[in-house]
Design goal:
binds adenosine-5'-triphosphate, single chain, AAA+_ATPase, alpha/beta, Rossmann fold, 6-stranded mixed beta sheet, 4-stranded antiparallel beta sheet, 367 residues, 2 domains
Length: 367
Amino acid sequence: MATTEAIIEARGLRKEFPGRGRGKPPVLAVEDLTVDIEAGSLTAFLGPNGAGKSTSLRMLTTLLAPSAGSATVCGYDIVTEPAAVRARIGYIGQKNGASQYQRVRDELMSQAAIYGLRRVEARQRVDEAIDALELGEVAGQQTMKLSGGQRRRVDIALGLIPAPGLLFLDEPSTGLDPQSRANLWEHILNLRQRYGMTLILTTHYLDEADQFAERVLVIDHGKVIADNTARALKTELAGDRLTVTVEDDSDSTADVRAGAAAIISRIAAEAGATDDSGTGTPTADGVRYVIAVDQGDRVLPRLLRELDAAGHTVIAAELDRPTLDDVFLNLTGRSLREDNRGADDPASTNGPASTPVTESQMAGAQR
Ligand SMILES: Nc1ncnc2c1ncn2[C@@H]1O[C@H](COP(=O)(O)OP(=O)(O)OP(=O)(O)O)[C@@H](O)[C@H]1O
């Protein structure tokens, strides 16, 4: 998806890790990341565990040197100009690097010091971050005493201290309960509105990508297998599903079936359905037909009208909108839900706390 104002331009980024253990084959974590990301957008990298999402982010943030390919971030090359990239981005990783004992405000002030901010400016940024993430009530508490959701908000506040125009969040909500996730998302969206930031995040939660991201990159086995808005992905790769049950109210069941089937088949074909829409399945009180079409909300009323006009009684009608899981299923033959089963450790409802990576940490992490 080419854009005119790309803040990220990646071409053929690839990362291969040596096998873990003797005789183990190398792991191709990212095969080919080729993508342009528009300034000011909110993009989600969606994929199962091990798909290569974190590795992609870590290359773009200069934490990992790519095995091949190239990318510019904020106009700077990730390999030859990593310091210029780091100076313009924030990164909230999955691993915890924050002090558990520091109080929230002190932690944020330390972060400001790391970035070389003068005291007055530091205080101003810290106050703003506390305000943006609604951390006022816990600003005097030690990080270790906070809930998982609060801690994650502190992580994001830490990421805001250098006032980056581009913020990377690696699985910001993993492990949080649904309410904390919703609350965290409110804050993420608020940040975007407030600062006009570009946000790139990874998630394996389908609903999050669906609801909040403007653009979803579906990643599987190190490759981007789909890239569009959630709505377009669902329309193009899954389609709506209409289920209509027609009453079997005639002695001549075959006639009724044939008449209704013909109408349904014709409307389905006109609406662009390609499956075998004319085959009905007998139920206890009628015959059920299922068709997959685009814009099911528009097709359904017409279907009902025509069936009614032809003397058929419709007992039930349902419109099922596809989910991103249907998209993933259509693309891979697997369910993302199944792939992620057990991924969230219920024992760690606090989630993996993390902290933005400082320059020295980044330098140390480069491989
Ligand atoms: N340092 C490493 N050494 C060897 N293999 C690695 C390393 N880091 C990641 N991998 C492997 O690369 C693949 C991609 O991992 P990555 O962490 O990028 O996936 P992910 O999509 O972010 O998954 P998750 O949702 O679990 O974080 C996996 O097979 C993983 O085991």
